[in-house]
Amino acid sequence: MLLPTPVILIINQPRQAAEFSQVLEKTGAKVHAATSFEEANELLSFLHPDIIILPNQLEGSDGGDGRLYCQQVRATLAPPRPVLVLLHPSTDVTERINAFRYGADDVLGDPIDKNELAIRVLAHLRRRQEEFSHQLTQLPGPNQIRRMLEQCLYSDRHWAAISIDLNKIRVYNETYGDLAGDQLIKALAAILTDIADDNEFVGHIEADDFLMVTRPELAEKKAELICRQFDSISSRFYPKGDIERGYLISTGRGGIRRRVPLISIACGIVSSTTRKFQSYVDVLTTARDYRYLAKQKQGSCWISEKNADEVPYPLPVGQDAQSGHAGAELSEQEFCERTTRILVVEPDGAMACLLQETLALEGYTVQVTSSADDALELARYEPHPDLILLESNLTGRKLDGWKLCRELKSDEELSKIWIVMATSHPDQSLALEAGADLYLPKPFDMPSLLTEVSLLLRSRFNF
Questions:
Q1: Would residue 207 be called left, alpha or beta, if left means φ above 0 and alpha means ψ between -120 and 50 degrees?
Q2: At what angle do helices 372-380 and 401-410 cross, to 10 degrees?
Q3: Residue 388 forms beta bridges with which residues?
Q4: Domain boundaries in the chain?
Q5: Which pLDDT tens digit goes with each residue over 194-243?
Q6: What's the rounded Cα separation, in Å, for the pair 300 and 81?
């Protein structure tokens, strides 16, 4: 797997700098040289070296104290700063200790054998790579990702970046615990490193956020392979019952439950062949934007600039990552001006009256019925209700609350209606298995109901 090219800055007299450069370039590093501290400062304004090698005392007309320069670098450069290797001619222990006190990270003899210098530098680079690796996966972390993308931006070669993360990892962690979530993230890391060849880079930004750098002509094939390989193993991370059910149940405050799809992959692809990027942040942000579009589709998916037009954005009314519903776009102003219809199906007269009055005060148009059969007929009238607040304990000629919910969700046109099932039934999963979008245990708190209703309705309009 490809890693960012290490960068070394040598500050020394021209002859010594040339000799060191010749040896250190054999380590695979990119070596820059400066013959004065002023010239080094100019290079540091745009260069981000991993290591700076400098003498204790720089000779010549532009000379200076290397120890003071170490002190200056530590005070002025933002983390992650370079490793400071000071070459010191003295064998006196006290003088070498003082060099460390000024800020040097390592003090070596001067003159020094060139091979020893190369080995010392490789040891520092190895330690730096370990330090900047992500603790969970040992993949290159944010600092190395930044270095890699900056090198891509300055390169003459074309490249593509794939932003990758897991959908619904938070709910997975809440359900099975953080340790199980970590195992899932490590499995994704293993897939990415297996897919990447020797000329491709894989980095781990944070949590479940990864980045792959590859060639433009391979990017979409790689993303497709990532999705397929993850889907082929993801079922191993669930109990059999959850796999058979096909979704997780997310439990919020007050016992509110909702269906959440099983874990999947989202990938966003950008390429240097299609646009000019201004910075590594621009690359990450744009790739994440396309990844967000991929999240709007169900299941594992990738989106690039080539197929982004196939994904509606903002989402059409009624389409979200969980439901897959579709409708027509509305602006937020149109949403506020639009009449939102709610059908309350509640056998308790006092509760029905309270719900009707409370929802009406919120600006909704509310109809009320106590019969499941009548509710089905009212739902079929146009314009259809946007949301049905449904009690499971209903009586009717043909339907009860559970059957009504299944009937509504099995109808292609009526399935677009949000259903909030409010019930005191002890088996709380029945409501979601019947097709309800939200389960609300009775007795519930009215502010919680109003909040959830508002969130459901606004999510349909992608606000």
A1: left
A2: 20
A3: 343, 419
A4: 7-131, 142-245+261-310, 332-460
A5: 999 999 999 999 999 999 999 999 999 999 999 999 999 999 999 988 88
A6: 39
Residue (of 163, 214, 148) closest to 3 by Cα position: 148
Element (H, E) at 342: strand 341-345
pLDDT digits (tens, 9 = 90+) for 146-202: 999 999 999 999 999 999 999 989 889 988 999 999 999 999 999 999 999 999 999
Note the pTM of the prediction, 2 decimals: 0.77
Six-digit token string for 271: 């390429």
SS3 for 198? coil
H helices of 396-445, where? Answer: 401-410, 429-433
28-63 pLDDT tens trace: 999 999 999 999 999 999 899 999 999 999 987 567
**Tell me: the pLDDT tens digits for 440-449?**
888 888 888 8
Distances (CA, A) of 311 to 157, 295, 302, 461: 30, 10, 11, 15
Q: Which two tokens stand for residue 123?
A: 């040891």
Architecture of domain 7-131: 3-Layer(aba) Sandwich (3.40)
Tell me how far apart the 2 most distant CA atoms of the chain are, in Å.
Answer: 102
Q: How big is the chain by its Cα radius of gyration, in Å?
A: 31
CATH of domain 332-460: 3.40.50.2300
The reply to whether 142-245+261-310 shares the fold of 7-131 is no
